[in-house]
Amino acid sequence: MLGYILRRVLYAVPILVGVNLITFALFFVLNTPDDMARMQLGTKRVTAEAIEKWKAERGYNKPMLWNGNASGLAKLEDTIFFQKSIRLFVLDFGAAEDGRNIGSEIRARVGPSLAIAVPVFLVGLLVNVSFALLMAFFRTTYVDFSGVVLCVAMMSISTLFYIIGGQFVVSKLWHLVPISGYDQGLNALKFLVLPVIIGVVSGIGSGSRWYRTLFLEEMNKDYVRTARAKGLAETAVMFRHVLKNALIPILTGCVAVIPLLFMGSLLTESFFGIPGLGGYTIDAIQAQDFAVLRSMVFIGSVLYIVGLLLTDLSYTLVDPRIRLQ
Amino acid sequence: MNMGFLFVPLWTDVLLWLLVATIAGYGWRCSRQPHLAAAWARVFRRRTAAMTSVVLTCFVLVSLTDSVHFRRQLESQQPAAEIAYAGRVTTLLDLALPHLYEHSEKSYSAPFATRLFSKELVELPGGKSAREYPRLRYGGAHLANEADRAGDIARRGGLALLAAAALWGIAGLALRPVARRYPGVHWGAAWLTFGAVLAVMMPLLGLSAEYHVLGTDKVGQDVFYQALKSIRTSLIIGTLTTLVLLPLGLGLGVMAGYFKGWVDDAIQYVYTTIHSIPAVLLIAAAVLMMQVYIDSHPQLFPTTAQRADLRLLFLCVILGFTSWTGLARLLRGEALKLSELEFIQAAHAFGVSHRRILLRHIVPNVAHIVIIAMVMDFSGLVLAEAVLSYVGVGVDPSTTSFGTMINSARLEMAREPTVWWSLASAFGFMFVLVLAANLFADAVRDGFDPRVRLA
Q1: Residue B454: what pLDDT?
Q2: From the centroid of its chain, how far is CA A290?
Q3: Do B442 and A152 touch (CB under 8 A)?
Q4: CB of A30 within 8 Å of any CB in chain B?
Q5: Considering the entire predicted model, what is its pTM?
Q6: A181, B21, B192, B203: most buried, per Cβ within 10 A?
Q7: Across the interface, do A161 and B282 touch by the CB < 8 Å criterion?
């Protein structure tokens, strides 16, 4: 088992290197630091000295890949590629455009992000599975049909509508919760209720429809027919056999998503003014802060790869037929 | 009236028309090949497919008339003067509904309003001035007495409904011979849907000459006009993206599954790497980089329309580049299965080349997956555009799209009383488009997926 895990971790390294090369190409080769400086300082009437100063402040005035002026290892180390891209591997993210340390900023913002993402994930899973089970239980009746129609309709509504509409009705018309903001500790609860509800509702359409097909697939299998032939009640078939077996693909699918919960949700956080990583990312995009974007790309890919790893592991854990070759 | 004009072919126009030609060619091919024709017949035997294809056809027609760009010739006083063209780029849609973009007000006005939404200082006849809601320049300007508004709307709307009923009847008569030839299709459902579309659109179009049927936005532009223009942007993003997605996903996916070995490893590595980067961040980074490029090379983009168009095209390319991985993974699995089957091994034994096996045996056998994936992707792309435009990495701010409409109107929800019509129109049109696309995609999947047929 340990050998298998180690092999999978080693397999992740070239992928991270690839991500790193892509981001390096995107952020430094396609557009030079000069272009970035001009964008930040304003395109018109910017002096060469101002650009040099901007680059020096951020350490962009070094050579790209090879520093011929330095000696020894510094030939490699004192370059943009080493300082800005390789340093990400040891989680050294450098400073943002406003001078703050990105690493400590990220640590401070993970909490609020998780405060939204985890409840949305758990409650959403519960709601989707129950709704899907309900539709599968009443399959080929009008309950199932109208449930599917409802799912397709809910899938067709933009997430923006759920957020804007929810804020308007619940906060502005009914004055039940504040429109946006965040607080420490339990006081945060009143700010979190609405975003969590909206997050769950906007996911119902696609989620429960997907789970419904998983349940129906499971119900067509031979062992289910055997269970019915034995004379088991339909509820016993559904809850003891179908639900348990269909939860395997659902839960292994969820494992891949869990690490990405750390990234937060872009739209919800920015609409509700929650100081999490999603809002941080949106702010960085709008302020064109490339240092922050680079860090978020790297963290996102690391989390995705961790998710892949966990999925593989969970498969081997729940299904003894999969061998660790 | 001078009728001279200068065509301004935009990149997205050309590609969209090419795509239409390709789809028409595919349709002709389908009619020649019984197994393809049978699959599409299965699709259209479903009631939802017949209904939604009518709605989607209407959206496509609007966006195609909006995809012929040209500049009108300016009228000149001196006959010997050089021919000059207007700076504004117009489309066939503008030509058909000129009042929609000419009738622009000062600022916000509610649907069917005759007065502005906010009070202004108005000169009264006696030389005095007072703060009141001024009359609109165009909305309901023909009314001598504003109290007649409801009656006027009812009368004009009723006339438009009569015209719609007449059109509906004519369409029903025209459809009859076609319906006799293809009896399997749900023509009744299609005809009813067409009636519903007419019943909504005809009064809106008929009243749009005298009123702002969906109100006006902050700078006084007609919201109905913006909604119609947004349809093109949505369709472009939903369809042109597949032009990038398809060759990458199909080519690499099939090759990985067929050749196996190091080719498979390399392709899997590439798509895992690209997929592991969060899509929004990759898109954001690429769009920001393009923004830097555009800002530092202004000489390449002479007009705003051309710059906005190139940005739209680039957005499609980037969306395609980030979303081909799903299709590739699907097709790799399928090609892996197919390449073990007897008929492929027989082809090997006969000495058929790899290229020929791929093109003649593998690709046609995964075509149904490609078609299903393409129609399924469409609605997701339309929804993604709105989100990306909100984040600020979507289409150019000068391009009208559902995303830019929502983005510019969302802060107005905080006003008292609320300016709701821009948001409601954008969400409403988007909902109808995406819902129709989703239902149509389901019908296509059911018609093409062999597993569904066996069940």
Answers
A1: 47
A2: 19
A3: yes
A4: yes
A5: 0.91
A6: B203
A7: no
